Amino acid sequence: MMSLGTEDGVAILLTLKLAGLVTVLLLIVGTPLAWWLAHTRSAWKGPVGAVVALPLVLPPTVLGFYMLLAMGPAGPVGRMTQALGFGLLPFTFTGLVIASLLYSLPFVVQPLQAAFASLGNAPLEAAATLRAGPVDRFFTVVLPLTRPGFLTATVLGFTHTVGEFGVVLMMGGNIPGQTRVISVQIYDHVEAMEYARAHGLAAAMVIFSFLVLALLYRRQRPALL
Amino acid sequence: MSLRARLDLARPGFRLAVELEAPQRGVCALHGPSGAGKSTVLRCLAGLEPAARGRIDLGDRCWQDSARHHFLPAHRREIGYVFQDANLFPHLPVRGNLEYGMARVPIPHRRVFWDQVVELFGVGPLLARMPAGLSGGERQRVAMARAVLSSPRLLLMDEPLAALDTRSKAEILPYLERLGKELTIPMVYVSHALDEVLRLADHLILMEGGRTLDAGVPGTLLARHDPGAGDEDAGMVLEARIGAHDDTYHLSRLDFSGGTLWVARRESVMGQLVRVRILARDVSLVLTPHTDSSILNRLQAVVVEASPAHHPAQLRVRLDVDGTPLLASITRRSWDHLDLAPGRRVWAQVKSVAVL
Q: What 8-state DSSP symbol labels residue B222?
């Protein structure tokens, strides 16, 4: 039997809020980063690209563990946030957002980088000779021509954040309404042997992910993954 | 509003170091073999090569002066650029492409008008189409109209015909000629095709290996240099007026300062100026005027000098036809046999004349 309780509802809302916020922030941060990676000839391209891709290969627990240390009371980030009066980030929603940003970064940056690289310089040069400045060029030429890349980045960034578990558990713990997202809620249900409730959420996740990806793949071949 | 540029750009295995000046009106052609750096010059002029050093002035406006760390970015130079492959925006219909540059020029600064340009390039029927559905020739016409609609003070054309087949080329050339005549926008035209250059250019700059070889009026310039790859293309260009038509033999007489030339009948009005090209290999020399020859055109000339041609058997002879230079390609043996020397009067027999 499947059923969803109010606790599940809270977890779903929290997850959507987290994934939505993280996706928006990632598009803002990831776009310039992907642009730089696609166009730079700097020696930093390799190292920066590798750092961005690390979450693809590391176990989420490793990532979560080091973020926990860094943001904890003795860590460099923790000391800074305390000194600035923000308190400590672990086990807060803000901490979860920051951790998710790092965790989902490659899923947004890599499709964008591939889209920017395949766009090439020619349309930008044409626009420049027609009096369009850099910002103008981005919105009137780059954005419309790389829309499939942005769509892929948005969908993958969002769904990947919805699906995270290890990083959340390490960094955010299990606070209802604060850090208890769907994946953690399912884990709790299973631990408590409430399989019916676990089914409800788990099935909802499967259906949601399937529908989103089916829509994405029907529209296009994704730029990456 | 003449264009003056001094450019220096180093790339791996290539160095561009040129100084050039183009007159304020008409078409200035950059010609030379591929790899000469012609397109790079154009890109530097457009501001698409930020690594280039030097100075560029168009009239009283300084676009670049590396000594003063002044570099006007491409979008602030008032240019129109036509790329070899048209480079239209694939996401915009023809109308959107045409409006892109025009919309970014404030109305008081617009010097050309929509109707005029759409008519000039015949792009009216294409407005609703997407670039992907256009033929190569149509695409290039849209690209030229797009560049012109941004009211440029200088048009830069990067081999606009190179990617087209012969038919499309023939379709586009008249538009280019009208462009030069009807709109008074100075143009820098890059091409490695001599026929295009000779048909369009008022001023010619020859380039090779990243340097400018020479500059001047096309006809005299080409008589001075072996243009292009070598002997096959060597020749010269002269301007002549249509002096008479002969209806019996379907011929037209062209008059120029050194004499007259008969060519196959032209459908041009009397007095019209045309350019003709005479290849060195089509010119032979005789000491007396042969009246028993099938060759129609004979010009009296004076030998100026002889220089070695690519093949050791051949000589390139420079002639003076009453002020007009002419090139002849003869064998070394003939040179000795006829006892030719600078100052010697000869008759140049012209086997064929190409009207451009």
A: H
